[in-house]
Amino acid sequence: MNSITDISPSTRLCAVIGNPVAHSMSPALHNRAFAELGLDFVYVAFRVEDIGAAMAGMRALENFRGMSVTIPHKVSIIPHLDDVADVDRQIGSVNTVVNDDGRLKGFGSDGPGALQALRDAGVEPANKAVTILGSGGAARAIAFTLAAAKPAALNLLGIIEPELNALTHDIAAKTGVKVSGALLDAKTLEARLAESQVLIHCTPVGMHPKVSESAVPKTLLHRDLAVMDIVYNPLKTQLLADAEARGLKTISGVEMFVNQAVIQFELWTGRTAPRAVMRDVVLEHLNAK
Q1: Which of 34, 131, 214, 226 could potentially form a cystine with 41 if both were Cys, beta carbons 3.0 to 4.6 Å apart?
Q2: What is the pTM of this model?
Q3: How does strand 96-100 pair with strand 103-107?
Q4: Is 174 assigned a catalytic role?
Q5: For residue 288, what pLDDT band results from cuts at 50, 70 and 90?
Q6: What is the side-by-side order of every strand in the sheet holding 83-84?
Q7: How is domain 12-108+258-288 classified at the architecture level of CATH?
Q8: C-alpha torsion sign, points 199, 201, 205, 206
């Protein structure tokens, strides 16, 4: 990170905005990456309640280059942007803003980050049956991104019925992918997993502090299934531990988190991100908890 004596009128500002935001690892991650490449950037965290005022401020400040956007602003920010990528407008949320000379452009990096994590692990969703557990913001972003990768089928299992129905309808109407949506129960989960080759877990089950919980009974984890959990605290969730014990390919939520940050970094700077350094920062912070 720049020291206070290094910051000058030419230093470019990036920030994470949300409410709350004090827990964010993003300042440590991005500042380490900026320092690694010797870039005159600094990254800070702002607790924001008035999203419209925050975006007006970004637009007015010449050196305010980029934002990471987190809860609760990923949806409400869209009307305040000048451009939004087509897929992210379909999803209905963004988590990244780039300020190009006062023109604010919105992007989503969660879905592409998850897809890259799968592919880095050798899991290609094309022509495979994919089951996603959850229907919230992250599940929505991942589902739309995976739909573009042309899976053979997309099974959505959720807990909140209106949210699940909306996601299922939107995927079917906007992508043409074969999609089914159902409320998550034991019988449906068993049936969907039996026909799937990829499972992506997008619910809070198993997140710290309830680290011994899993949304999927170990007996349903068959040998042809690759398992990704977007929860990254703990590093190895109970679901991933169970899948690993059965010899399945597993993908940690850390990989998606790092990948989405890499996408943001490259949008803001135009430089290739130091992925390994950024991953090390995340692991250092999680291991220190």
Answers
A1: 34
A2: 0.91
A3: antiparallel
A4: no
A5: confident
A6: 41-47, 12-18, 64-69, 96-100, 103-107, 83-84
A7: 3-Layer(aba) Sandwich (3.40)
A8: positive
